[in-house]
Design goal:
The protein is α+β, with helices and mostly antiparallel strands. The chain is globular and about 55 Å long. Bound molecules: protoporphyrin IX containing FE.
């Protein structure tokens, strides 16, 4: 056996290995160099095994080549349509949502949703986000020591989604509590018990959302649900289950991701004080800073597993039809053939062609909203507090147990 073949044989990565949470970057650099397509063990995959693609150009191919399907059900995963019927409704709604669909179904759903989720709708949220940030900052200012995650980065995106959906003020506390419980239950680390505990929350949320949809049918307003109800292509419209699935998808895709970006950004800046100073001195650097923080902190490490519908060769390795493939965005965004000094946080990086929001047909629907929230959230934190420091040593920060979403469980800080 040649040396290269030995290396490829050994290139088997278990994504639940603690090092893949604390510092996976040396491992990805090694894989890009010696085994750009390798075997992986992950909770996200059927039978927990599959392939992982780590180089930038190859990852782009996984997300854009139509040979790779996102539709587990159509490709024979999760048993059968019969099994689907047995799944709790909230999981069924999610499995049926557009992120798990191929064309033409995906194109149809995305086209309709795009009519409601417009750049204008997102820009219209700007003043709401400013308004929602203020009381959170006031709370931070009142305490001696705070948890950036629990007290700021989780509540902010949740409040924004509630605003976007038009959840009534009287329902907001319930909405926050249910979402938190549902997210904890659907987290990979939660196990079966977590899922069972989350189910009643899922049912209550379905009822809340059904109520919102009914209300908007009777009384249209300027919010997203009305937009989803009104979206049409000829005679085609979104059905009620499709609207409910979309609401759950927005909640799950848009909440923890944005929270992780904000929650990882402050520790990254504190670990690179010259970059933090640069941003304080040049506030207009904020947009470029957000792009670099997306690249560097990798809030989403990979998208939905893809399934090749025929054998595909990448970097000399044949990936068999029907296997499961993870396109590692976290690794692509540190590819040294694309990014100069990829391990360096450079807030002014130009060009910055990161693919933190994915690539191709499923490119993140909420990218503009996430950017806007991150810009307002980060800027407001830095403007309000001249001094931010970690209240524990950096190496004591722990990541959440998720293999696909990278973010800290908590970030204790002191602010002045
Ligand atoms: C920093 C924050 C975010 C990151 C890093 C992120 C990342 C991603 C990525 C990588 C994908 C592609 C998944 C794939 O191809 O398998 C995606 C899709 C998606 N994202 Fe985001 N996202 C963020 C925030 C949001 C927000 C705020 C929303 C909406 C409220 C959102 C809604 C969606 C939806 C609906 C999809 C599916 C699009 C489709 O299937 O066509 N995301 N996101």
């Amino acid at each position: 056996m040649t040396a290269a073949a030995v290396e490829i044989e050994e290139a088997y990565t278990d994504l639940s290995d603690p090092i893949m949470f604390t510092n996976p970057f040396p491992r990805y650099a090694e894989l890009r160099q010696f085994a750009p397509v390798s075997r992986v063990k992950s909770q996200q995959l059927r039978r927990h095994t599959g392939y992982m693609v780590t180089r930038y150009e190859d990852v782009m191919r996984v997300y854009s080549d139509k040979v790779f399907s996102s539709d587990e059900l159509a490709q024979g995963g999760r048993g059968s349509a019969f099994m689907m019927k047995l799944l709790p409704r909230v999981f069924r709604l999610l499995s049926d949502s557009m992120v798990m669909k191929d064309d033409p179904d995906h194109q149809r759903l995305r086209g309709l949703v795009n009519q409601a989720f417009t750049p204008r709708m997102v820009t219209g949220l700007e003043s709401d986000i400013h308004r929602l940030v203020e009381p959170l900052l006031d709370d931070l200012a009142r305490k001696e020591r705070v948890d950036l995650v629990a007290d700021f980065t989780i509540p902010l995106p949740l409040a924004v989604i509630a605003e976007m959906l038009g959840v009534e003020d009287s329902d907001r506390d319930q909405f926050h509590f249910w979402t938190k419980s549902l997210l904890e239950g659907t987290d990979v680390g939660a196990g079966v018990l977590g899922i069972i505990r989350a189910l009643p929350m899922g049912r209550k949320m379905i009822r809340l959302f059904e109520g919102l949809v009914k209300k908007r049918e009777a009384q249209p307003d300027e919010h997203l649900i009305t937009g989803l109800l009104e979206a049409s292509e000829g005679t085609d419209r979104l059905s009620e289950p499709e609207i409910l699935g979309m609401i759950f998808l927005l909640l799950l895709a848009g909440h923890e991701t944005t929270a992780s970006l904000l929650g990882s950004s402050i520790p990254a800046l504190l670990a690179n004080p010259e970059q933090l100073e640069r941003l304080r001195a040049e506030p207009d650097l904020i947009d470029s800073a957000i792009e670099e923080l997306l690249r560097y902190t990798a809030p989403v490490t990979h998208g939905v597993p893809r399934i090749p519908m025929e054998d595909v060769e990448i970097a000399g390795v044949t990936i068999p039809k029907g296997s499961r493939v993870l396109g590692m965005l976290i690794s692509a965004n540190r590819d040294e053939s694309i990014f100069k000094d990829p391990e360096t946080l450079d807030l002014g990086r130009q060009p910055n062609r990161h693919i933190g929001f994915g690539f191709g047909a499923h490119y993140c629907l909420g990218n503009q909203l996430a950017r806007l929230e991150a810009r307002i959230g980060l800027r407001s934190l830095l403007e309000r507090f001249e001094h931010i420091e970690l209240a524990v040593p950096q190496n004591e920060l722990r990541f959440k147990p998720s293999e696909s979403l990278r973010g800290y469980r908590s970030v204790p800080i002191r602010v002045r």
